[in-house]
Amino acid sequence: MTKPAFSLGTDDPAKMDSGSAATELAALAAEIARHDKLYHGQDAPEISDADYDRLVARNRAIEAAFPLLVRPDSPSRRVGTDLPAQGQFGKIRHARPMLSLSNGFSDDDIEDFVTRVRKFLSLSDADPAQFVAEPKIDGLSLSLRYENGKLVQAATRGDGAEGEDVTANVMQIASLPKQLSGSPPAIFEVRGEMYMDRHDFLALNTAQETNGKKIFANPRNAAAGSLRQKDASITGKRNLKFFAYSMGETSAPIAGTHWGFLAALRDFGFSVNDLSHRCDDVADLLATYQMIGRQRVDLPYDIDGVVYKIDRHDYQQRLGQVARAPRWAMAHKFPAEQAETVIDAIDIQVGRTGALTPVARLAPISVGGVIVSKATLHNEDEIARKDIRIGDRVIIQRAGDVIPQIVRALSDARTGNETVFDFPESCPVCHAAAIRPEGEAVRRCSGGLNCAAQLFEGLKHFVARDAFDIEGLGARQIEQFIDLGWVQTPADIFQLGDKSAAMAALDGYGDLSIKKLLSAIAVRREIGLERFIYALGIRQVGQATARLLALHYGSVEAMMAALNPDANLDAAHQALVEIDQIGAAMANDVTAFFGNPDLYQLIVDLVAELTILPPERPAENSAISGKTIVFTGTLTRMSRAEAKAKAESLGAKVSGTVSAKTDFLITGADAGSKARKAADLGITVLDEDGYSALLGNQ
Ligand code: IVH
């Protein structure tokens, strides 16, 4: 790659005059457009990604200082060449991940949450721990980045690690501060919820209807649709609002508590929700939940629960996160909204693992602002238990993003025309036998990958965002490629390059989109082991388990040596069960998957297409990295959960049982049989003092 002939301006945007700013913005727009074309259109970039990012950042900085000079053809409003709508926004990697929240529904869930948090922190009954309770706004979360007090970037949450660049649109939203007041840190990212007031939503829908345009199902969809406009000036007209509630990257600490942080946000010029309360205990949290719940109908915007956050930031830090949700916060959802409708039919869906799931087809009905036309019936026992018949009037409910469910049939309303559903004993898609093993609730199609439904669902999972994340390859394309016989296994995806000529003859595929698709596939030839394992779609193996497996085996070669149809699968099973958090049933699913010669061949073919990277180990050089640790007895310095989280963050594997593979046994008070077993096996046994000496100040 050669260096750009274009020379990047160095004047401080804050000190430029508008004439030179306009000139430089014009030059940047032309230069960035040229590189976009080279990169996206011709696959022939002239400059490195880092140099390209510098051009974009320079453009953004000048635009932030001169919002009125943002050009109609500004690079911040446009990504790549004239791309189809789906690629309209660029990607932004979040400096700190945007997390979601775990949900609680009952008072008990909240009590458990508080107990769990207090236990993790080893707080005694006398130690206070305050929480902040705040409304859970039903909008979409955004991360706004301010540099030296100026808004420079806005991103949607996306998958939490990477979101969409909506800077140009957000710049048009009047209610958001473009310049902060007070003294914010030089780099400051704030997160919060973008939303639309109910009356603005209704007025928008009326106008949309008059103009023959799309009607939005609820204020949240309207806010999302308004933000993701190609023409940013439309976003500006939609009266979007924003409540700030959490922090992303920041170059200096802002407050010691969340409560203090919210006060600072107000000083910086953000709206912070006034219903937020600082609470002392569970009773206080639940009273606030009731209080906010009572006001819900009268608020001008939608909320769907209350969020509880531990107040002290040092506690937040210690608690950390599990998977994608912080341990220090929880959403307490409002009860599900219910409605009455009729079951028109019951369909059977066949999932990735062959499970036959009955789904009720409903007369469409609005539940809490969303039109519902399907509800899950889970399995055949559930239909029998609830005595649900085709033609029944039923109560359905929706809780948040959960799939709508049927609460009960209104048997008094029966006319005699209802029919009992006969659950099929063969797969409705491939007609192979559908078998229900003894003791299990689920009936499964035995067709494996010969079943079009399993193949389709499996491939859909394979390319999904948390798996191979192949942009441009979604359900529609997979279906089409399966129908054409181009794709029958995951490995076939990596042979699609051979089909590019045939693809060009299909409807909806231009040269550019084929190029984009093939390059999106090519990029994924290199993939981390944990994503790879997750993508295989093994039953019960979600992201967290995939990570455990990746860390356990360390490489795809080691994994396949231990797990293959000719390997000692009993030994492999035994080794898996020894991993904390992997039980016998899960281990069965893993060994059965790799032990199946057809599936194993599919993995072999796939691996041949890929470079699979070993998992990132949390810390390579701590005293316990790569070691297996078992904790036993009552720990006094921290809770078991915190000790485990800490050890894992230092690269250790924490196991529940002592075996020859254990490196250290850490004993708290009253350590029993494990200590004796460890001594017998000659394993290093440390008490808490010894352990903390080993860790030093890590
Ligand atoms: S805190 C680590 N606070 O709810 C902090 N989230 O279900 C994570 N949300 O993705 C978020 N109101 O979009 C937080 N007061 C509030 C919120 C809130 C709405 C949304 C947010 C988040 C989702 C999780």
Q: Mean pLDDT across all residues, rounded?
A: 89
Give the low-pLDDT segments: 79-86
Determine the fraction of residues in helical runs and give it as a percent range.
Answer: 25-40%
The backbone outline, from C-alpha atoms, is: globular
Small molecules bound in the structure, each named once: 2-(butylsulfanyl)adenosine
- Secondary structure tally: strands: 28
CATH architecture of the largest domain: 2-Layer Sandwich
* Spatial gap, N to C terminus: 42 Å
Classify the beta-strand content into a percent band.
15-25%
CATH topology of the largest domain: D-amino Acid Aminotransferase, Chain A, domain 1
Structural class: alpha+beta
The top-level CATH class of the largest domain is: Alpha Beta
How many domain regions? Answer: 5
Q: How would you write the strand order of the largest sheet?
A: 2-13-10-3-9
Cα radius of gyration in angstroms: 28 Å
CATH superfamily of the largest domain, by name, is DNA ligase/mRNA capping enzyme
Q: Number of helix segments?
A: 25
Major sheet description: 5 strands, mixed
Could you walk me through the main structural features you see in this protein, from its secondary elements to its overall organization?
This protein has five domains: 13-77, Helix Hairpins (Orthogonal Bundle), CATH 1.10.287.610; 91-333, D-amino Acid Aminotransferase, Chain A, domain 1 (2-Layer Sandwich), CATH 3.30.470; 337-420, OB fold (Dihydrolipoamide Acetyltransferase, E2P) (Beta Barrel); 528-613, Orthogonal Bundle (DNA polymerase, domain 1), CATH 1.10.150.20; 628-695, Rossmann fold. A hairpin with a 5-residue loop joins strand 14 and strand 15 (356-367). Helices cover 36% and strands 20% of the residues. Residues 79-86 have low confidence and may be disordered. The protein is α+β, with helices and mostly antiparallel strands and 698 residues long. The protein contains 25 helices and 28 strands. The strands form nine sheets. A five-stranded mixed beta sheet has the order 2-13-10-3-9, sandwiched between helices. Strands 16-15-14-18-19 form a five-stranded antiparallel beta sheet. It has a four-stranded antiparallel beta sheet with strand order 5-4-7-8. The protein is globular, with a radius of gyration of 28 Å. It binds 2-(butylsulfanyl)adenosine. Residues 99-101, 134, 136-137, 141, 157, 193, 245-246, 307, 326, 329, 331 line the site of 2-(butylsulfanyl)adenosine (IVH).
